[in-house]
Amino acid sequence: MLVNGKSYQTIWMDESDETRIRYINQQVLPFEFRIEDMLSSKDSFDMIKTMKVRGAPLIGVTAAFGIYLACLEARQQHEPLDYIREQAVLIKDARPTAVNLAYAVDRMMEKIEKSADLEQMIRNAREEALKILKEELNASYMIGEHGLELIRKISDRKKDKPVNILTHCNAGWLACIDYGTATSPIYRAFDEKIPVHVWVDETRPRNQGARLTAWELGQHGVPHTVIVDNAGGHLMQKGLVDIVITGSDRTTRRGDVANKIGTYLKALAARDNDIPFYVALPSSTIDFTIVSGMGEITIEERDKDEVRMMEGSSGSILQSVLIMPEDSPVSNYGFDITPARLVTGLITEKGIIKALESEIMKMFERVE
Ligand code: MRU
Asked: Which CATH class is domain 2-135?
């Protein structure tokens, strides 16, 4: 997508130096657009842990490149495969909720374990990481293709008045390689000249909506308005939301959705107001091993300072300020579960399906 009129993806391999992975640092957006280098498997762990990169598909691709770098580092190790396995365990542990991380690490390790020697491991790891990247890119694109029809139908019904879409957190191109998940149909609709307007939940505590979604929509010229997290229900009651589209960090085989904290409340409000609630996700986000989201998904609990403090820019300086009594207890769950019954449909790279085990398993050919 565009940044200052130039096309970017979130992460890529340097064309002239394949030991260097380049990425957009999301910690400093929207105040600074900074491209940094990932040079080691440790960098990959740190980037995921500290959320320089975030969003389920991007975490997976970052992990895949991290394992490729671990293979390069293994040239300096007595027991190369043991070293790679150790790095894989570390990286997989960086964040628990988004299944894309485990999915990418497992895929990489399967290729590596099958390789005859270290040089083949390196070649296979490079190839697999690039393959995962390309698959995520294509999946995001196809989600846009399928989701576009939902927006087009609403637009036809509204006789070309803007379609108001509410989204939560950042399930945009910054969370993926390009296009996004929730945003991919929105960008497609906008590019097709369908009038759209996006309500952007700020998404406390880290404000991925206000900082990242608003920024990327703005860069592409998509009309949008940032709202506080609690405004969605009110806007729905006033008839100002036509459709909700969010992303997902892990969707179970029956369609329960783990996504950024607050998603569940939007789904409840949408149901109460008869507004369609769609979740856009690539198949790499489906955890086919679990049925229910209740109790079977580890919900990440993050640093309490994310709640206690608020980060913003004063002039060119990024600053954090305390926003509550210093000694009040705090809890900080990063994700919640939206049960499948509240989900109108899943927008996947293969098409739109109901959040039902039978449809999910059939669509992805997981017959058991
Ligand atoms: O904690 P984050 O910023 O990684 O959370 C991101 C989300 O919750 C997104 O909605 C999700 O990853 C969807 S990915 C396109």
From this structure: mainly alpha
